[in-house]
Each structure stands twice: as C-alpha cells, then as structure tokens.
Amino acid sequence: MDGELFPRERTVIAPGAVHVPDWLGPDRQRELLADCRDWARPPAGLRTVRIPGGGVMSARQVCLGLHWYPYGYARTAVDGDGAPVKPMPPELAALGPAAVAAAYGRPPEPGTAYDIALVNFYGADSRMGMHRDADEDSTAPVVSLSLGDTCVFRFGNTLSRGRPYRDVELRSGDLFVFGESSRLAYHGVPKVLPGTAPQGLGLTGRLNITLRVGGLG
C-alpha cells in the first residue's frame, strides 16, 4: 500500500516461517496473473475440490506438474476432467529457489527442484480451513505467492489446528515461505478482504500460487 507510515519489513513468523512483503513487483504480478488465466483454462483447468465426506472447498484450484487431490498426487486430473496435468513451467519453478533465498538469506539444498504448483482462486467469500501440506515426500520449504485481494493468513503450530497461531496480512505481491521446523505447521485463510487488490492488476478476488517439492519420483 502506498503512503504507509511504516514500511512493511521481512518478518519471521515462526522458526522457518518467513513473510517477505512486496516480493513481486507490479509487472511480475501482471505476468503471473496472465499465466494463471492460461493455466486455468481446460483441459485440466480450474476445478472445485471435493473433500472425502462430502465437503467442498470454497477456493477453486488448478495444478501444475502433478495434480493434487485429497489426499495425494496424480499425473491426471483424477477429480476433474481426467486430462493430463499441465507441466510445471520452468520460469515458475525457478521462483522456488529464489523465494527461499529471499526468505532465509541462503538458497535451498543443492538439487532442490520445485516441481508442483497449486493455484487457488479465492472469491470474496472463500475460506481455507486449517490444514497441513503433508502429501509430499520432500521436506523442502513451501513457497506461497499472493496476487489480488489481501487475505488474513493464519499460521499455526505442528500439533493441532487450534492455538497457538498467528494471523498475518498477505497482500498482492507478498511472499510467505515455511519450512524447517514449521514445514508441517497447520495454516489456513479465515478471511479475504474484498476490493483490496491493486487497481492496476485487473483482478477481483485472490490468487495464491503455492510451490512445492514433491519428492515423489
């Protein structure tokens, strides 16, 4: 946000969990938004995710590299149109190590290759319950990029969905990385703040791009 009294600064939210404000500049945000719109088109495009037991995620999702479904990965959109998942774009994969270096001040372990991206679209009323990213065989840090409307991101502990947790405001262009002892921490999005996206971006709602290392062979 322009004209703030105090600039937002890099903040360690928990051991291994780091918030880097304004990591993506306006031009890069617009480029990623255009890419997301391409990725969201069929086949294997944006879909509604149904949870075992009958629940439905209010945020819609498209996957790259491997297709996530509750609770595993596949090479086709097994809970969508069944089409082969779109490949992980090299330029998107390259953001993973760069993001880790920006958050931690050092690159990830040699050989770390970000090969999965989950793109979630949040409307004004969308939420994401507390959950862990635990379907990967790699312990490499998770990289989260925000575009569009601001959200309240709730980052918790590794033992339960309840307290202690900390709420962080993630705005368009912000980076959040969590790994090390926080890699399996519960986290979620209790609220999206409609109408807070940058005017020049051209997006109503919020996009979250999550980069992961599958380690799944």
TrEMBL record:
For this UniProt record, the keywords arranged alphabetically read as follows: Dioxygenase, Iron, Metal-binding, Oxidoreductase
**Does Acetylation show up as a keyword for this record?**
no
Q: Keyword Metal-binding: yes or no? A: yes
List this protein's GO terms for biological process.
oxidative RNA demethylation
Q: Pfam families annotated for this entry?
A: 2OG-FeII_Oxy_2 (PF13532)
Can you list the GO cellular component terms from the UniProt entry? cytoplasm
Q: Which PROSITE patterns match?
A: FE2OG_OXY (PS51471)
Q: Which SUPFAM superfamilies match?
A: Clavaminate synthase-like
> Which part of the chain is the Fe2OG dioxygenase domain?
113-215
What's an example of a GO molecular-function annotation for this chain? oxidative RNA demethylase activity
Needed cofactors, names only, are:
Fe(2+)
Instruction: Give the highest taxon in the source lineage.
Output: Bacteria
Q: Which residues bind Fe cation?
A: H131, D133, H187
Q: How is the cofactor bound?
A: Binds 1 Fe(2+) ion per subunit.
Q: PANTHER family recorded for this chain?
A: ALKYLATED DNA REPAIR PROTEIN ALKB-RELATED, NUCLEIC ACID DIOXYGENASE ALKBH1
Descriptive protein name: Alkylated DNA repair protein
Q: Which organism is it from?
A: Streptomyces xanthophaeus
